[in-house]
Write a structure and sequence with these properties.
Elements (H helix, E strand, L loop, with lengths): L7 E3 L4 E3 L5 H18 L10 E2 L6 H11 L3 E2 L4 E2 L2 E2 L11 H12 L1
Helix pairs in contact: 1-2
Length: 108
Amino acid sequence: MGGFEDSHLFFVDDLILFGQATRTQAEVMRDYLESFCDICGQQISFPKSTLFYSKNMKDIEACVFAKVCGSPLTKDLGNYLGVSLIHYRINNKTYRGLVEKTQIRLAA
């Protein structure tokens, strides 16, 4: 079996879900998120959420996925703790800024 096998990642108040890029998968994810909200009393702002899609996915398919989810598409997930969430090649420069900030705070 190839590909990425994790289905989700949790951060402090963020969640990243992974799945197949199909309309059915988009509907299932949306239904699960809505059920979660009903149970715990939380709300998700789908217009404030973003969908990142693989370069292997056709733009028209991504647009259908976004319409089902009610969230805009993005090519950049941004940073978390000062580190880019998208890595194409990890090396010692990838986390240098985070290490430097940590060292400065520890020295203070």
